[in-house]
Amino acid sequence: MKRPLVVIAVLVFFGGGILALFWFGRSFTSYVFSANDLHLERPELQSLPLGTPTVFDLHGRGFNRETSVSLFVDVNNSEATIGSYPLEGIYNESLLSGHFIYLASDEGGLQVLDVENPQQPQLLIRYLAGRTIIDIHQKGDFLYLSCGRLGVSIMQVLPNGLLDHIADISLDSLAKSCQVVGGFLYVAAGSGGLSVYDVQQPEQVKLVETVNVGADVSKVSMSGDFLYVAAGRKRINVYQLDSPQIPRLIESLNFVENFNDFVIQRQQLYVATQEGVSLYGLTDPKQPELLYRWTDFGSAKKIFAGKENVYVSDSFSGLRVVTSEIESSPGYFNLTINPRTVVETPDYLFVAGSNRGLLIVDRKSLLVRQAVKTIQTKGSARDLFIKNGWMYVANARGGVSLHALAAEDASFTMLSTNWGESFAIHKGFLFVAQAKEGIKVFDISTPDQPKVMAVWPNFQAMSLAVADQCLLLSRGIHGVELVDISDLHHPVVREVLPDIHALDVALNGHFVYIASKNKGLLIYELVNNTKLNYLSRLQTPFPMSQFDLTLSIYSQNGIVYVANGRSGLLIVDVTNPLDPIILSSTAIVGVCREVRVVGDNAFITSHHGGITVVDVKDPENPIVLNYISMPALSRGLQVVGDLIYVAQKEMGVTVVPVPIAAGTVEFISKQHMQVMLPSPKFPGRYSLQVNNKTASVVVDGVVQYQ
Fold first, then answer.
1. Is 215 inside any structural domain?
2. Is residue 618 part of a domain?
3. pTM here?
4. What is the mean pLDDT of the chain?
5. How confident is the model at residue 448 (pLDDT cuts 50, 70, 90)?
């Protein structure tokens, strides 16, 4: 008797869950599963002068009278990606031998792929499953795999691309990197220094020397008869190999800042640091000569030497390229992947990242990322505010900086060297949350001449909201504080809500909206500027409640727009604050971090995603208009006129045009439309996006404006 009841209960539970997913996540399901409802044939490429409207005769399927068409700046290189192979895991290194590529991963061993047909790579086999492989080095027919705590594995490459295991070398420390010269293997052995092995007979490896470097050794590389060894984070030792068994130290290259990685190409040493990339000439290995320093990087993490160029993973968020023209700015390619390892051939780039597998990119089609402007900032840009042509940027580790948007150069004024987390603005005052370092208040009534009005070192906050006499502090796991700021020099805490993991706060009239990690959207009433009365909590239905993370909120005209983490954009009717009602939930690529509403459009930034523009004129039926892929976005977002400003962490602030909606759309049939779009105000390459209520299609690079 009990078993049928259990079965019925389970069916009801899951049936209700499916119904809730259908009802409350209808936008999510439609955009994910209805892509085939809308198809667009690629129109011919147009090249036009600025000021000239563009006309497209569009063919495909799924068109209707509600279909929208728009142009947006092309920041991707989707057309350049000609092949891919999905693989789970984090990849540390790659190597191409013949038409086989070997991928080394964390805890995933070594994958071998056949890329003879770059458009359709094939996975052949996996070796050393479960093992972490940090580095791959090839010498002749042998691969030397640095496997961390498991030492070095030697594998022989067979003509069919498969491998034969030859030997393992055990170390007392970590094997991080290795090189083979003249029958000797040099291993960067972490705290164990530099180990030298005789591998002239790979089946009978012998340890011949251990060099005490005096620091953790993380990498070795060769140039001629010289070995370059990373000794700690601020020094590269140069060893001469006149006696291969006993490397002889001849020089040490010291750095002021920590370096992250280095490579050698054509007797030139490239060093990646937090400050950029430095180039040294190695004509005389005893005296490396600083030739050039590129500083317009966000944070150069890993660096790769190709046959022609040097590639840099910038904060693991974008691929930069340094060419032989050393005084040129490094190009930036957006491949919608976090690049961790790159192999270059004359025709292709093979790029692997985190949980995205392998991309094969046609180098001839690879185009530098476009942007109206990229504004370098100090530290990691978290938030921004713009007033009358002046931009304030809150930088983690870099403080608060002031930038003149009309200036041609990259100069800026530092207003504070403390940690910059977020801003709140009220009646000519700029409130700066400095996380654990307190709050600072500026008078910006004259925006180019800000004045410090107050410093509150004892008030800690991640985000702020302000009314006439009240300041709300979102303090993460420490809850929410209500502060009376009627006297700027003597702020007084009026109330504390300690049991909320608060991520953001918003004020609208006398209503307070709190985005919390553990309780979703909370609504309070502000009473006499001294007390917070609880009104309601938004109850998100199963299964939304299983994965939503309320990160940011924006309140306007009785509606709260919620940047809801992986759940996308949540729109909530709060006209009755005692009973908030979900109007819609729209899937957004990435983890939503910030939302701003301008006119009928909501602009959302997402981490591991980009900028998404959603038509919210009908909040119960929002329509995704545009998606601009841009990695490493934080919460900073502001739309000024025709431009979108976004904080892109170590990259600074990036400026792109607002997408352009079609002026005229003539619906001819479900397979045919004609559209006319006005000219953008900025030159560049633009992509076309077509949307209806159930699907969205993008065609990259359809018009070039000169």
1. no
2. yes
3. 0.78
4. 88
5. very high
